[in-house]
Amino acid sequence: MSELLKGKRGLVMGVANDRSIAWGIAKALHEAGAELAFTYQGEAFGKRLEPLAASVGSDFMVDVDVTDDASLDAAFEQLGARWPTIDFVVHAIAFSDKSELTGRILNTSRDNFRNSLDISCYSFLDVARRAHPLMVENGGTLLTLTYDGSHRVVPNYNVMGVAKAALESATRYLANDLGPDGIRVNAVSPGPMKTLAGAAIGGARKTYKHTDTNAPLRSNATLEAVGGTAVYLVSDAGAFTTGEIIHVDGGYHVLGMPQYENL
């Protein structure tokens, strides 16, 4: 796969550390030959990202707050100054107050609902709007991350399930809007993974163990597997895949009940 993305370049948003799904994707894209730029939010995340970006040959990092229009505008102006066109954007950004990712969705506050939907869903639309001018000449790919809690109840996932459902709907609408310009829009849906974001969900360890022992492949996904799926979607091999929610979860999403031995 070392030549599959040769000549392609794009932006990866949301790398928190070397266990992030976004990092698994970035590493796979780099190994397939792509040139990468990165965004981060805040000095602490910037310090974590710097050596990772350097390890894949990138010196382009920009601090972005996706709730701030001026911050996003500045980031894409810098990106456009570096690269007049891009081939992909990976949007791996989501947030909800950790204290509301336990217990009942009934107790979701208005402020956290707004904030969760704004950062986890609206930001994808906001990013797409700014990426569009950099892709309209040659086409490209917009890629985001979702989770099965978008349409099935997962304990403690709460408002994030609502946000991911909205994100998946936005993916489909964007795919239709941008298709005439040759821009594909897809979402990857991994199963539970041991990431910083995943750890914020109440009972994350139990959820991880449950899916690991019940998925048809008897395993949760790896960063490499998610990264490989992203490479396919970004590459010319994915030229006619758009509007899709692609599961990379060991098949867990097909189950109606746990495996017989676990009932």
From TrEMBL:
Pathway: Lipid metabolism; fatty acid biosynthesis. The active site is at residues 147, 157. InterPro entries: Enoyl-ACP_Rdtase_NADH, NAD(P)-bd_dom_sf, SDR_fam. GO terms for molecular function: enoyl-[acyl-carrier-protein] reductase (NADH) activity. Keywords: Fatty acid biosynthesis, Fatty acid metabolism, Lipid biosynthesis, Lipid metabolism, NAD, Oxidoreductase. It catalyses: a 2,3-saturated acyl-[ACP] + NAD(+) = a (2E)-enoyl-[ACP] + NADH + H(+). Gene3D superfamilies: Enoyl acyl carrier protein reductase (1.10.8.400), NAD(P)-binding Rossmann-like Domain (3.40.50.720). Its EC number is 1.3.1.9. The keyword Metal-binding does not apply. It is an enzyme of class 1 (oxidoreductase). GO terms for biological process: fatty acid biosynthetic process. NAD(+) binds at residues 14, 20-21, 41, 65-66, 93, 164. It comes from the Bacteria. Belongs to the short-chain dehydrogenases/reductases (SDR) family. FabI subfamily. PANTHER family: ENOYL-[ACYL-CARRIER-PROTEIN] REDUCTASE, ENOYL-[ACYL-CARRIER-PROTEIN] REDUCTASE [NADH], CHLOROPLASTIC. This is Enoyl-[acyl-carrier-protein] reductase [NADH]. The gene is fabI.
